[in-house]
Amino acid sequence: MVKAAVHLFTEKGFHRTTTREIAKASGFSIGTLYEYIRTKDDVLFLVCDSIYEEVQTRLQSLLTDDTKGIERLKNAITSYFQVIDEMQDEVLVMYQEVKSLPKEALSYVLEKEVEMTSMIEEVIRYCVREEVVFLTEKQVKLAAHNILVQGQMWTFRRWSIQKLYNIEDYTKLQIEQFISGITKAQVAD
Amino acid sequence: MVKAAVHLFTEKGFHRTTTREIAKASGFSIGTLYEYIRTKDDVLFLVCDSIYEEVQTRLQSLLTDDTKGIERLKNAITSYFQVIDEMQDEVLVMYQEVKSLPKEALSYVLEKEVEMTSMIEEVIRYCVREEVVFLTEKQVKLAAHNILVQGQMWTFRRWSIQKLYNIEDYTKLQIEQFISGITKAQVAD
Amino acid sequence: MVKAAVHLFTEKGFHRTTTREIAKASGFSIGTLYEYIRTKDDVLFLVCDSIYEEVQTRLQSLLTDDTKGIERLKNAITSYFQVIDEMQDEVLVMYQEVKSLPKEALSYVLEKEVEMTSMIEEVIRYCVREEVVFLTEKQVKLAAHNILVQGQMWTFRRWSIQKLYNIEDYTKLQIEQFISGITKAQVAD
Amino acid sequence: MVKAAVHLFTEKGFHRTTTREIAKASGFSIGTLYEYIRTKDDVLFLVCDSIYEEVQTRLQSLLTDDTKGIERLKNAITSYFQVIDEMQDEVLVMYQEVKSLPKEALSYVLEKEVEMTSMIEEVIRYCVREEVVFLTEKQVKLAAHNILVQGQMWTFRRWSIQKLYNIEDYTKLQIEQFISGITKAQVAD
DNA sequence: CATGAATGAGAGTTCATTCAT
DNA sequence: AATGAATGAACTCTCATTCAT
């Protein structure tokens, strides 16, 4: 159902997609759909939740690598961008439709987003502890946000960016600028 | 009307806002509203168009400063971030709702986005020509995208970022990382 | 609209009548119907309210007669039964569907019912004061309830009663039994 | 099942009660419920039928008492009111929901109602034959209807009546007025 | 025999849009 | 030129009923 919904939301957006379409695309009747959900909003929540779950799981498994120093950060970014690339539609839908979630669900989802940011921060902080980069806590947080968003923009600016680069180039170039940015940032500080 | 619509869209999103509400908030009757627009989508288009127009105008006027070298780029970024900060609601609405525009309007709006990217690119290219930074054309384009998005994320991640920084700090830190990123990028290339 | 709704409710009951049917029978579109009401329950409330209003108004105007003693009571009962007879469908619908009203509306309507009971009580109390009947306060209240219900049963048992009597006979017979009941009740007390 | 249904109907009415709820409250699965009934209307019919059956049975057993004259009538009324009081919910549901029965079932149920009226009539006619009251056939029938309805109103006006009286007082007062009404009715005739 | 997942017709309600005034 | 009553297509959601297991 989530797969079907993602597909429809990608094409027409959440609001322009009807529950009947979701049901049909999921392969069950409207009645059966409503056995699984209580309101249409629930579909959106399920979609968002499942995407976060998958992204996070895949990210977590990738973060357990045993490289050291700056390499570890590079690998993490590469992996994250890879995941985003493979789940483009899902990620795109999620960032375009979260705002339509009811308040409570929104908070829940934003918490997940916070968790993800923390994961990235942690990888950066690791480099700080290893003394391969020198950043204040504020700079670490900002860098984490930047990486996260640079991943997301691969989807929401794809109409432009993906004409210029493939994911490998994009990753390479972003890492390049990003790493120089933070390794030199110490000086500027 | 645009002001009223932006306000409503910020609060409830485009789809959850009714034409009646837009009319009322604009001080028109529903009948009069439909003298100015043909469909509800037109409102969204007008909103997006007017925001682009304003952002672009303000940006353009700021780019005619007479500083040289890297300072010019720093000033441009600072100005751009300033504009974004002052037009937070507008920018937020725009990036969250563009996707709801009908195809034709979408293309038109994306073109504006391309123009803006070009403006930023141009400022960066100027630095390249001045030989204060050394970037390939591909790196220039990516850098422009990054700046643009870092501006936007001030709004769409405000629930998190604006708790950590005020706009001055945010600008300072981003410029710091960004400038080191591109000035050192030559080496990494 | 109320007229149309009463007619439909008489035939099929409130729950089996659709809003579309109400709209059609009222001569407007479903959209226009919803300009006048907020929910389907509102229709029922409007129906009940308007019936009470009419019954009460007609009753009130009839109670201002200048006869004395027991005649006054007889006239009141006769008038009340007359009103019920003329508004049979309305009264029937009301007593069969009130329970479907949402809580708040129900209280409001029951208050009206209490008012009507009080009106009848007052006429009886007048006879008590005139010393043509001798009843305790409890007996007065019960007598009022009885009259009220004997009026209503002319509608809700019409499948049986109206085969046996016309409204004149019914009124005459009921008054007969009722008046003897209360004029002799003193003794039994 | 009937017990469960009565309980639910009392709380929410027939139409607002779902078959699922009936099944659950009865301890069946929805599938099993439909082994016993063909349509939801059948539930209502079963409920009504079983209530009539019980009221009638209890009434019948009480009518075989051996008192004579007016006492017999008083006892009958007292017993009937007693039954009503003990089966308040059932009686209330029945009178509020019969109208929702499909035509055929309705006729069947109304026949039962006729039977009950006849039973009461018979008790009154017995008094007429015993020459303790003097009533025409028309008066007998009306009196029977009145008693029946005065029983029912103990439930459907309980929000008001049961605040004023307990069942013993109510019975005593009603019998008082009723008996004087019919014993004196001869004169007024 | 009992179950409950599956169905889909149909309900109430909304709202973009029109057009007579 | 401005209005807002009127429209009805389209939406979300419910629930009586069935039937494969």
Automatic annotation (TrEMBL), chains A, B, C, D:
It comes from the Bacteria. SUPFAM superfamilies: Homeodomain-like, Tetracyclin repressor-like, C-terminal domain. Residues 1-55 form the HTH tetR-type domain. Signal peptide: none annotated. One of its GO terms (molecular function) is DNA binding. Transmembrane segments: none annotated. Residues 18-37 bind DNA. Keywords: DNA-binding, Repressor. Pfam families: TetR_C_24 (PF17932), TetR_N (PF00440). InterPro entries: Homeodomain-like_sf (IPR009057), HTH-type_Tx_Regulator (IPR050624), HTH_TetR (IPR001647), KstR2_TetR_C (IPR041490), Tet_transcr_reg_TetR-rel_C_sf (IPR036271). This is TetR/AcrR family transcriptional regulator. It comes from Halalkalibacter suaedae.
